[in-house]
Amino acid sequence: MSHEPVASAAFAPSPQPEAGRTVVEPLPAPLRGAATVPGDKSISHRAVLFAAMAEGTSRVSGVLDSEDVRSSIKAVSQLGARVSLERQPDGSLAGGITGWGASGPRKPDAPIDCGNSGTTARLLMGVLAPWDVPVEITGDESLQRRPMRRITAPLMKMGARFEPGGRETLPITEVGTRDLRAITYDAPMASAQLKTAVLLAGVYARGTTTLNEPAPSRNHTELMLPEFGVPTTAADRTASVTGPRVLQAAEVRVPGDPSSAAFLVCAAVLKPGSSLQVENVSLNTARIGFTRTLERMGADVSVRHAGAAGKEPYGMIAACHTPSLHGCEVPAEKIAGIVDEVPVLALVAAHARGVTVFREVGELRVKETDRLAAVVEGLGQLGVEAYIDGNDLYVEGQPGLRAPAGLVFDSHGDHRLAMTWALVGLTGGVPVEVKNFDSVKISYPRFLDDIERLAR
């Protein structure tokens, strides 16, 4: 597979695709051996933002070099942090970040453009809430359609202001206050971004700020804040901080991203003859729900712990081709832990015998694109019956599924969809085209290179 012009030493040339499309060829051999994936995107964002908030110079390593994380790096630089990160031989970023500490961020000389990164925009609102500097936050066309009210509502209860009043999307101007109020907030949805924004504001509020959520979400913030000298209280569906406090410089090592690893793991499950190990990847229990879902489908997948980076566990995920998969039901309380992997898990489900049901996946409608509609559309092109009932996604699997020739998938500029539809070509028997495949740069820039190397 290759980008325009279509040519590759490893694969036979394909017809020239239309502009903006990438041809993805079938892999010439099974996936074999060991792989690593880029640094975890969620942890990378937090490492950059927390270091910028801290007093002193933090040392960070393993940071994902992607467009989303660079949005966070650019944002904190505009706000006065000094960022000295260099690209490493493995493609990651490492170096020092000197934060603004107790003096607070400076007023930027231009709006902060978060690109496509909802994590940057939403977490930044929590970062800015304790400071009385007006900051306009904006993003690309996709990000400007995504809901922000879920973040602004609790921050307004704490005392921050957002202008124009009542606006629910970007661009929006935040004006924080040095007199933030601690709150107890019952979140309407399980969202690590919402939880993190409230906790970061709560670090500077007087008293204890507590967030309760209806289902567990990613806990990277609760694990990382103590590394920066801020104790947290974390339980299954609640988290709290007591302020005011000032973050102190720390050393953070970012493990591999399990959401990126999921695509290699699913490829190995689907590609005959494959046996693959993904090493040095985060094994945070809130992030590897996809492995349990695959196990419920009967896939040959296993996890082995190796150690911890700070409080983040890491280790290896192994996967082998599994010719006989079966459908399963994924309950609503498990969705927050696999929300980024639902598209690729739906593709695996398309190969399974029986029906797979993903309960309460309405959150996929407000990701980088409407992922729920896009999954139904893409699986329909494969001839797979997939449909939405309320907020539930149903996939009627077809064992022995084969993609027809000439398929063109639309990623809608969404990196998770781009990699999902690429797997149709990579693990199948015919090439496919993927529109706007370059969106993978948001989270996994070297995806095709890595998967090609494993099939040699």
Automatic annotation (TrEMBL):
The active site is at 340 (proton acceptor). GO terms for cellular component: cytoplasm. Catalyzes the transfer of the enolpyruvyl moiety of phosphoenolpyruvate (PEP) to the 5-hydroxyl of shikimate-3-phosphate (S3P) to produce enolpyruvyl shikimate-3-phosphate and inorganic phosphate. It is found in: Cytoplasm. Phosphoenolpyruvate binds at residues 41, 118, 146, 193, 371, 416. Residues 93-102 have a biased composition (Gly residues). The lineage of its organism: Bacteria, Bacillati, Actinomycetota, Coriobacteriia, Eggerthellales. It catalyses: 3-phosphoshikimate + phosphoenolpyruvate = 5-O-(1-carboxyvinyl)-3-phosphoshikimate + phosphate. Monomer. This is 3-phosphoshikimate 1-carboxyvinyltransferase. The gene is aroA. Pathway: Metabolic intermediate biosynthesis; chorismate biosynthesis; chorismate from D-erythrose 4-phosphate and phosphoenolpyruvate: step 6/7. Its EC number is 2.5.1.19. It comes from the Bacteria. Gene3D superfamilies: Enolpyruvate transferase domain. It holds the Pfam family EPSP_synthase. Keywords: Amino-acid biosynthesis, Aromatic amino acid biosynthesis, Cytoplasm, Transferase. Belongs to the EPSP synthase family. 3-phosphoshikimate binds at residues 41-42, 46, 191, 193, 340, 367. It is an enzyme of class 2 (transferase). GO terms for molecular function: 3-phosphoshikimate 1-carboxyvinyltransferase activity. GO terms for biological process: amino acid biosynthetic process; aromatic amino acid family biosynthetic process; chorismate biosynthetic process. Residues 1-23, 87-108 are annotated as: Disordered.
